[in-house]
Design a protein that fits this description.
This protein is an alpha+beta fold. The chain is built from ten helices and eleven strands.
């Protein structure tokens, strides 16, 4: 008898989702389903016979456990009740929020979400105004979760997770580059020192999206922003959530255009202390390290070939630039 080989990550066929998972929802019947993208999880667009759009996410094993996902869904339902526009989860007919998906690599979990109204955010026209509106929307999001609590497990976005774990994951890739490894360690130590010296205990903590970037939201004709993709969320530092926005504006060479109006819009809704604001530049460095950790942690699924010398040359260049620009 020929046995099947074990797999890291299977890709569920759209046809199977259409015929086996989507009928679990009482939404008038689905007629179309297609894969939107495959990353840390697999995301599909589902369309009903009436033309209504929904998004189904099938979480990857072991990227997210049932408890991890439950935390995410609870925050989305909390935000919805508070009046913050989010792509919220929908229950199946029996009242459950999460559908089990037996897969070759083990049990996976599926959730159906509403489709975020409008179009993806764009900074092509009036970037400062868009950044200001985005900052206000993030401020409202943070203000709405002040009283959020969940008993479910979720990885805290602390310095160990943002800095130390990624550093160790990068180590094997720099085994032949001892000088660069020492430099990366040095920068991580400086980021630790800078943040801990604020001191770290004075920073505002709470729920954070973890991957805002200045995107992950659609905007409708009335200007309402609907946030989505909370897969990287968890308890953490509010300054880090803002640093992710600043980090992305750096990547797009638009920091001088977008960052100040974004922070101003945020502060008008949910003011942060001077200590929190002072922490943002260092958290930009943390974001660069987290990104390295994301790529290296998922290399068995996404591939090791692109994590080459060119990748780490660029990673170190970005870390040096943060150190220089922000005087870390």
């Amino acid at each position: 008898m020929i046995s099947t080989y074990p797999v890291n990550h299977s890709l569920i066929r759209s046809e199977a989702i259409l015929t086996r998972l989507l009928p679990e929802y009482d939404l008038g019947g689905f007629t179309r389903c297609r894969l939107l993208y495959s990353g840390v999880n697999d995301t599909y667009l589902a369309v009903t016979g009436g033309g209504e759009k929904y998004v189904m996410r099938i979480y990857r094993t072991p990227w997210r456990s049932w408890s991890n996902i439950s935390y995410e869904l609870e925050i989305l339902n909390h935000l919805h009740v508070k009046g913050v526009a989010v792509a919220r989860p929908l229950p199946v007919q029996n009242g459950d929020w999460i559908l089990p998906v037996p897969a070759p690599e083990g049990l996976r979990h599926a959730v159906l979400f509403t489709f975020a109204r409008g179009k993806e955010i764009s900074y092509k026209t009036e970037p400062a105004q868009m950044a200001y509106s985005y900052g206000q929307a993030v401020g409202k999001l943070h203000a709405a979760v002040q009283d959020f609590y969940s008993p479910h497990a979720r990885q805290p976005l602390d310095l160990e997770f943002l800095l130390d774990v990624p550093l160790q994951l990068a180590k094997p890739y720099l085994a032949h580059r001892s000088q660069d490894w020492e430099e990366m360690k040095r920068i991580v130590e400086k980021l630790h020192h800078q943040l801990e010296g604020l001191p770290l205990s004075h920073l505002t903590r709470g729920f954070v999206h973890g991957d805002l970037q200045g995107y992950h939201a659609n905007v409708d004709e009335e200007g309402t922003l609907t946030f989505y993709d909370f897969d990287c969320c968890g308890p953490g530092f509010r300054a880090y959530d803002l640093a992710v926005i600043r980090w992305c504006s750096r990547l797009e060479d638009s920091e001088t255009t977008r960052w100040e109006p974004c922070l101003r819009g945020y502060q008008e809704v949910f003011p942060l202390s001077e200590v929190d604001i002072a922490a943002i530049p260092s958290f930009v460095g943390c974001r660069y390290m987290w990104h390295i950790g994301l790529h290296t942690a998922n290399a068995d699924d996404w591939g090791h070939g692109w994590l080459n010398d060119e990748y780490f040359d660029n990673a170190l260049k970005n870390l040096r630039k943060v150190e220089e620009d922000y005087k870390i």
